[in-house]
């Protein structure tokens, strides 16, 4: 489901215009990514928690010339599904 | 940031009531988790993609009695941060 289709479905459910709905989804994404970049985690009821994890620096090798170089440490966003979402997925038959 | 504070900040930005804002966030979470449970992935502009991954069955051991048992296969929700979020986190000084 693309962002466009998500907006459409949400606007139908809320009985709002596409424009209003797109605005609120964009604002939500902006708040979450801003909080993450400030080192804060964000919990969304029904979904789960967004947080950041620090990946340490590591040495990698350029396969073209065999040269070793340092990959600097970085922050990556991770998502931990909450109980509601986990339970919803638990009901799915994984043997299909 | 708890769900309550997220709603509050979003309602301030949109100039909506807490009630309206809570409704749209709940509806959004519901759409995303429903799509995931239907095997669909969901892309949110500015954040990234939610999708499911199948974890195969595995054998585990009960440490209390040494008995081995089968953990059934299950679906877990995973999140892949998009470019905008990755770039936002790249600007952070990880050496703090």
Explained architecture:
The structure is a homodimer of 96-residue chains. Chain A is of the alpha+beta class and 96 residues long. Chain A has two domains: 1-40; 41-96, IHF-like DNA-binding proteins (HU Protein, Chain A, Irregular). In chain A, 42% of the residues lie in helices and 28% in strands. Chain A contains three helices and five strands; from the N terminus they run ααβββββα. Chain A has a three-stranded antiparallel β-sheet with strand order 1-2-5. In chain A, helix 1 crosses helix 2 (18-37). The mean pLDDT of chain A is 92. At the A-B interface, helix 1, helix 2, strand 1, strand 2 and strand 5 of A face helix 1, helix 2, strand 1, strand 2 and strand 5 of B.
Helix share, percent of chain A: 40-55%
Largest interface, Cβ cutoff 8 Å: A-B, 57 and 57 residues
Second CATH tier, the architecture of the largest domain in chain A: Irregular
Q: How would you write the strand order of the largest sheet of chain A?
A: 1-2-5
**Per the principal axes of the C-alpha atoms, what is the gross shape of chain A?**
elongated
Number of helices of chain A: 3
Classified by CATH, the class of the largest domain in chain A is Few Secondary Structures
How does the major sheet of chain A shape up? 3 strands, antiparallel
**β-strand number of chain A:** 5
CATH topology of the largest domain in chain A: HU Protein, Chain A
- Please write the string of helix (H) and strand (E) elements of chain A: HHEEEEEH
Low-confidence stretches of chain A: none
Can you tell me the number of structural domains of chain A?
2
Oligomeric assembly: homodimer
Rg calculated over all Cα atoms of chain A: 19 Å
CATH superfamily of the largest domain in chain A: IHF-like DNA-binding proteins
Structural class of chain A: alpha+beta
Kindly report how far apart the N and C termini of chain A lie: 21 Å
Question: What fraction of residues of chain A sit in β-strands?
Answer: 25-35%
């Amino acid at each position: 489901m693309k962002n466009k289709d998500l907006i459409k479905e949400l606007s139908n459910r809320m009985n709002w215009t596409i424009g209003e709905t797109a605005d609120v989804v964009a604002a939500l994404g902006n708040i979450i990514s801003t909080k993450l970049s400030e080192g804060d985690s964000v919990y969304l009821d029904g979904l789960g928690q967004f947080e950041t994890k620090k990946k340490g620096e590591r040495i990698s090798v350029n396969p073209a010339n065999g040269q070793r170089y340092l990959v600097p440490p970085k922050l990556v966003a991770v998502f931990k599904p909450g109980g509601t979402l986990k339970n919803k997925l638990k009901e799915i038959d994984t043997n299909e």
